[in-house]
Amino acid sequence: MIKGVFFDLFFTLILPRYPADRKECDVLGMSVEEWERYAEEENLYRERALGMVKSESEILERITLQIPVHITPEQRAEVLSRREQRMRSAFLEVPELVLEVLNELRKSHIKIGLISNCDRIDIKFWDQSRLAGFFDDAVFSCEVGLLKPDEKIYRLALNRLGLRASECVFVGDGGSDELKGAKKAGMKTVFSEALLQKTKREQRELMASADVHIQQFDQLLRIVSHSVL
């Protein structure tokens, strides 16, 4: 019997899309691809996702210092403002189907947890989201100093809800090898493409660590209610 469901946050529950206008990269005259090459650089992201970079302004400073052009304090402030607005919009525009599924899980007395790799900007608006009220607990990497796929972050999440891995499911889009980490921790795994579709090659790779693959979010209810794992 499934007693707990843990979710990834980004690209599983919410999708922080770049808007048609007022993108943070527009301030610097860059494409989204160029901007993300700097903003998501592996070592820099790891530092802030582990909570080593504490403030929103310092996060932006660390990112923009890598970019080989002069960036004024005013530009940096505008980039931060637009990035925060993009994240805020993602938290306030949660797909209704996601909320309906979470509500059904709550009504079934299943505990719901979150395990997310994120920095301070990423989760600044968590408490303003309708999502927050459905969760029994949320483990954010920047607050606990652990990152998926480290088995310790899954163990921490399980312990905080008093659950055994064998009675829990982890649902995610597969980024950061999160499905592999959840399976190593002893959870069943659900690879979700409900919000973001992967390439055929990515699908094949991720399915190696997934017990079930869903493309519609409400398919999760049948999996949980009938223990189809």
UniProtKB/TrEMBL annotation:
GO molecular-function term, one example from the UniProt record: hydrolase activity
Highest rank taxon of the organism: Bacteria
Annotated protein name in UniProt: HAD family hydrolase
Region forming the signal peptide: none
UniProt cross-references to InterPro entries, sorted A to Z: HAD-like_sf, HAD-SF_hydro_IA, HAD_sf, PGP-like_dom2, S-2-haloacid_dehalogenase
Organism the protein comes from: Neglectibacter timonensis
Keywords (A to Z) from UniProt: Hydrolase
Glycoprotein in keyword set: no
Pfam families xref list: Hydrolase (PF00702)
